[in-house]
Amino acid sequence: MSQKSVNCVCEAIENIDELQNAVKEDCPTGCDTKLLSPNHNLGDTVPFVLFTSKSKPFLAFGNIGGLDNGPCFNTIFFKVEKVNGCCATLSLLIAFNEQREILDFAEKETVCELFRLEKTHYCIEVDLNHFCAIKCLNPRLINRNLG
To answer: Is 9 helix (H, G, I), strand (E, B) or coil?
Structure first.
């Protein structure tokens, strides 16, 4: 008898995907969907950070070469767009400090300077089996207003 292996990162991403999709329904039900209910102004995104087996945040790059009339950036923050088993399409969230400067996670520790996250159209495909931990963040970080 074979036993199905469970990957807690896969399960967490699938759960986030279900919660985000529930917000798009006309009449979402259940306790979990209230986390992102439009009535509570939390939008449709649960931002998160994935950690590698070396306990480092997973880093991805967006707008490489600056071809889309904006800066190239790196990020450790993601939104799940689609899940297929333990493979997922993640969109990159660009991170800003309180002065609206883009945070750089490649050269220095700037996580504590995070003030605002914004959605982008840049996506990556990942195999969730290669991550050992996930940290969900407060949805209020998305498009957070200054003062």
So the answer is: helix
* CA–CA gap between residue 28 and residue 32 (Å, rounded): 10
Q: Helix or strand or coil: residue 5?
A: coil
DSSP code of residue 73:
E
Express each pLDDT in 74-95 by its tens digit: 999 999 999 998 899 999 999 9
Average the pLDDT over 10-38 and give the result.
62
CB burial of 93-117 (b: ≥16 within 10 Å; e: otherwise) equals: bbbbeeeeebbebeeeebeeebbbb
Q: Which residue has the tokens 């008898």?
A: 1
> How many CB atoms neighbour CB 122 within 10 A?
18
Distance (Å, whole) CA 96 – CA 100: 5
Separation CA 79–CA 101 (nearest Å): 21
Q: How far apart are CA 56 and CA 131, in angstroms?
A: 10
